[in-house]
Amino acid sequence: MWEIIKSQLIYFWYYFDIQFRQIFIYWIIGIVIGSIISVFAKDKIHKLFMKIKDKNFEIIGTFIASILGILSPLCMYGTIPIAASFSKNGMEEDWLASFMMSSILLNPQLLIYSAALGNTALLIRLNVSILGGFLAGLLVRIFYKNKKFFNFDGFEEKKNKDTDPNMFKRLLKNIGRNIKATGLYFLLGIILTVLFQMYVPQDVFASLFGNNEGFGVLMAATLGVPVYVCGGGTIPLLNEWLHSGMSMGAGTAFMITGPATKITNLGALKIVLGIKHFVIYLVYVMGFALLSGLLIDLVGITV
Hints:
mainly alpha; 303 residues; 12 helices; 78% helix
């Protein structure tokens, strides 16, 4: 019995070491770049968003808002107070929808993490996040023109934690908060990946998520709801899935529903959307994930 346990531990450490060395550099770079943007560029990004408010950009403004949402380094609980201030200053509802939707799907830190998945997955994640934000804003523009989609009553901007007068210390403190917030999930993601490598037959997994096309996309979209806790934590697992037979379409569906239905994001959105609009949001997310995944598989894009 002890020999079996010992051999399993050796295999576990072998796979853990491989996964850790493959992913760690992306995690560190993502944290550093995310913190640099948060400390030095966050306010500039938000001010730029306010500046386009008075420009007659029409639908183009919805697209710009989606890109700025991805550039914003804040989590959803940090984004909502900012969006509330935008709303009070007269920002269009469709622009807010684009900004918030793309911000949910992707941020600078997660974008860097996703580089570990390869160039194809990285570009797909970036493009579907921009498109997801743009389409959300476009639908709000069409169906809620001159009507309120969000309710930001009672929301105020949170106190800024990046206040240390020493810029270097300010950056180090932000990096420390990011490591504290994501480190445990990063390790958990690697552990789950190792367990997957050790105990899940690759041919069985490929038959579920690679060969069934539409069913595989649906399964991956659904799997994103309970599995996704932290973006950095799911990267090692998703990387292994994609190289174990998961289709790119199924991976895309997971990358959409995961962050969009993360419990903290849902809790924040429920407050500002209300029941009716919250249900609309969930339907949109699942529909967009399924259509995106099916289209990517139909085109034949692979890792």
